[in-house]
Design goal:
Strand content: 15-25%
Binding site for NAD(+): 78-83, 112-116, 136-137, 148, 157
CATH architecture of the largest domain: 3-Layer(aba) Sandwich
Domain 3-dehydroquinate synthase N-terminal: 74-185
Strand order of the largest sheet: 4-3-5-6
Structural class: alpha/beta
Keywords: Amino-acid biosynthesis, Aromatic amino acid biosynthesis, Cobalt, Cytoplasm, Lyase, Metal-binding, NAD, Nucleotide-binding, Zinc
Largest sheet: 4 strands, parallel
CATH class of the largest domain: Alpha Beta
Enzyme class: lyase
InterPro entries: Dehydroquinate_synthase (IPR050071), DHQ_synth_AroB (IPR016037), DHQ_synth_fam (IPR030963), DHQS/DOIS_N (IPR030960), DHQS_C (IPR056179)
Number of helices: 14
Distance between the termini: 52 Å
Order of helices and strands: EEHEHEHEHEHEEEHHHHHHHHEEH
Shape: globular
Bound molecules: nicotinamide-adenine-dinucleotide, ligand LNCXM5UN, zinc ion
Helix content: 40-55%
């Protein structure tokens, strides 16, 4: 690997895999595919989106071709609406037409949308083929690690999916430099999330380096993405299938996923919805008697990164409340929330009164002063 490349392991026994983080890595993809034993004789399906294809597909295709691979590239429209059953159907068709067999590999080149969608194609094509994650957004430090793959239903996010771990994750930090500013901010939301749920020191570091992160200063970005992937890898390694601990990665998602579905996929970016959801979760913490400064700090930090912290006024509270009932954590008639107990610590609460949640949603509406 190129000097300066960092490597982490997602420790899952026989399904363990590395995450390579560094610069100039797209050009090394072919040799890494060979190193990981991905068969040359079976065609590859490369899935990317309409914004990423012109930026990075050529470099990847060239590297794979030089290593002897035959690659067919399928391009989906960029944005959340591509995480759909219709697009899954299209891509399965593309795989069949390209002659993919059971030894083939599906590659995701793009952000979390492409990662989740291509991952679900890999999980379902012929009941499962190999999969490689090549993330190109900040957000995708989260989505490319851990094996959650899915498409959306109009009523609920990620409700049709699977757990399907990649062979490896190849994170070429050069790709991040072309991200639009709104996507940079949205991605930083989930990076800060990893600190809020696991590592208060990392939150303080993000706070102190906000300017460098927003400017995509390479050293700060490389360190932060490494830390974000590391936290994700630790949690996933302890509880791959979300029997318990892994649910903490869902901080902000009970409200956030509901907002995405009710607003219509793509109106609020995932990271934006989760930013609002994290402020909501922190306000819930105060209701459970935890320090009110947790909510104040959470909000201040998100404002510093230029993220939304209020629910758009046109979204209906009752619709948001009923969308939350479709949350995957909802069980035995109870709402479940990941609640911060300090900056860098959370607990899983299964005793959350829906009246409290409704009060918080109302209090978070645009134009409402803090309750
Ligand atoms: N599976 C998981 O564990 C997990 C974790 C976090 C998020 N997610 C999912 O990830 C999705 C959000 O991911 P995202 O924020 O990466 O969104 P995205 O994939 O839609 O990418 C954001 C936008 O940036 C563009 N883009 C991507 N890379 C680019 C680049 N390098 N330069 C210029 N433009 C680029 C894309 O075309 C898109 O328009 C959501 O669907 C969310 O549910 C999944
Ligand atoms: O990997 C996880 O586990 C997460 O919860 C990470 C989240 O950031 C991500 O948005 C995930 O897709 C949400 O999972 P879901 O099970 O609530 O759909
Ligand atoms: Zn998320």
């Amino acid at each position: 690997m190129a000097g300066g490349t960092r490597e982490l392991t997602v420790d899952l026994g026989e399904r363990s895999y590395p995450i390579y983080i560094g610069t100039g890595l797209l050009a090394q993809a072919g040799s890494l595919f060979l190193k990981h034993g991905l068969p040359v004789k079976s065609p590859i399906l490369l899935v990317t989106d309409s914004s990423v294809v012109d930026l990075y597909a050529d470099k990847l295709e060239e590297s794979l071709a030089a290593a002897g691979y035959k690659v067919t590239t399928a391009v989906v429209p960029s944005g959340e609406t591509s995480k759909s059953l219709e697009m899954l159907d299209e891509l399965i068709g593309a795989g069949l037409e390209a002659g993919l067999d059971r030894k083939s590999t599906v590659i995701a080149l793009g952000g979390g949308v492409v990662g989740d969608l291509a991952g679900f194609v890999a999980a379902s094509y012929m009941r499962g083929v190999r999969f490689v994650q090549i993330p190109t957004t900040i957000q995708a430090h989260d989505s490319s690690v851990g094996g959650k793959v899915a498409v959306n239903h109009r009523l609920a996010k990620n409700i049709i999916g699977a757990f399907h771990q990649p062979e490896f994750v190849l994170y070429d930090l050069d790709t991040i430099l072309s991200l639009p500013m709104r996507e940079v901010r949205a991605g930083l939301s989930e990076l800060v999330k990893q600190g809020l749920l696991w590592d208060g020191e990392f939150v303080r570091w993000c706070d102190e380096h906000a300017e460098q992160l927003l400017a995509l200063e390479p050293e700060a970005l490389g360190y932060a993405l490494y830390e974000g992937c590391n936290i994700k890898a630790i949690v996933v390694s302890k509880d791959e299938r979300e029997n318990d601990l892994r649910a903490i990665l869902n901080l902000g998602h009970t409200i956030g996923h509901a907002l995405e579905a009710v607003a219509g996929y793509g109106e609020l970016l995932h990271g934006e919805a989760i930013a609002i959801g994290m402020v909501g979760a922190a306000r819930l913490a105060a209701k459970f008697g935890y320090d009110e400064r947790i909510a104040e700090e959470t909000e201040r930090l998100h404002v510093k990164f230029g993220l939304p912290v209020r629910i758009p006024s046109h979204l209906d509270t009752d619709e948001i409340m009923s969308a939350m009932m479709h949350d995957k954590k909802f069980a035995e008639g109870k709402m479940v929330f990941i609640v911060p107990t300090d900056i860098g610590r959370v607990e899983i609460r299964k005793d959350v009164p829906s009246s409290w949640v409704k009060e918080i949603v109302e209090g978070l509406r645009e134009g409402t002063r803090q309750a």
